[in-house]
Write a structure and sequence with these properties.
Blueprint: H1 4-10, E1 17-21, E2 26-33, E3 37-42, E4 45-50, E5 54-59, H2 63-72, H3 79-91, H4 95-108, H5 113-118, E6 121-124, E7 127-130, H6 131-137, E8 141-143, E9 146-148, H7 150-178, H8 185-196, H9 204-210, H10 216-229, H11 235-244, H12 248-261, H13 279-290, H14 298-316, E10 324-330, E11 336-343, H15 352-373, H16 381-393
Antiparallel strand pairs: 1-2, 1-5, 2-3, 3-4, 6-7, 8-9, 10-11
Length: 396
Amino acid sequence: MRTLAAFLFLAPLLPADDVELTSGTVVTGKVEDLGDSIRVSRSGSSAVYPKNMVRKITPGKTPEDLYAEKSAVLKAGDLQGHLDLARWCRTEKLAREAAAEYRKVVSSDPDHEEARAFLGYRLHKGTWMTEEEVNADKGLVRHKGRWVTPEERDLDAALDEQKALDKALLREVTVLLEKIHSSDPRKRDDAVAALAKIEDKYKSKAYLAALTTSHKETRRFAIEEIGRMKEQAAAKPLARRALWDEEEPLRALAFKSLEQVAHPDTALFFVPFLGEESVSARIRCVDAMLRFRDPRLVGYLLVALEANAQRIEALDSTDPVTAVARRTLILPDGSTIVVPKVVRLKGESVDKALLEKLKEEKSALAAALRALTGQDHGEDPAAWRAGLAKKKTGKE
């Protein structure tokens, strides 16, 4: 057996070789010396291996060499011989050579099914046709790599054109919105006039994005327009804006737009805000819920009232201990929020201002429950839970 160095020196490009790698894998192909590595090629593909990965190279014949030998001894009309060679080529993964042999089979037997199938033909209306010919005969056209009817192609092209138009208009609306906060009144007026000429369906996405802009005038414009448009997709972001916009007038404007949008789940969009750390935000949340009077809120409000009672108890206690508790609300869509944790503090650490704020929250929660249920159980969450349970079972 020749050494690797001697073999590469004597035959930098041999017809066919077996390359044994240090891993034990044997790769068959034509070897080309690249210096520090070798390239092994076969059937139109190749791989490069560093020489330190090669244990030895043994001269041999590639499947291509064997095919050439087998093909050379076959006569042109030897149908079975060419068929057997085509099948051998397939087992050796010589697709190009297999196709050549199958074409020779077809020249002897035009209706040979195996050969026709491999070459991409199928029998259509008594004639062997390629896929392209069959689909053309059916009146189909190739569009984006698929065969479709001319009508489907035209519809898809129209949809592409519409998407391009939507994208262009979105860019235009976004640019115009940037001018709403311009210090130049003329630019603002021109932008408003230009936006008025664009159909609402092309503006909603840009207006929704503008709800979070830092420019107050742009937010005001977007909030007003969304309300006018009654854009249903805006209800959830409007609920956040109604509670958290840094400008109180814009919070009020967001509430007005929410009422104009009139989404059936508007009240539920405020539920996650019962989990805010800010007591003031939670109170605003309860007040917002009352504006939409949705009976589905009762369960959430009761859990919030229970959490509030625990927080007040923790702050009002003189016991020198610390404890933590949490409550979880499950929303209609299956998502959850965690009502703020309850921390029991040492008596001397009581935050009186926070305690008063929590009592204000408790009053707001109880008032909301009274308004939604028509019942009055004071501010005691246990009494409320018992009363609502009786109402549900009809024992009241």
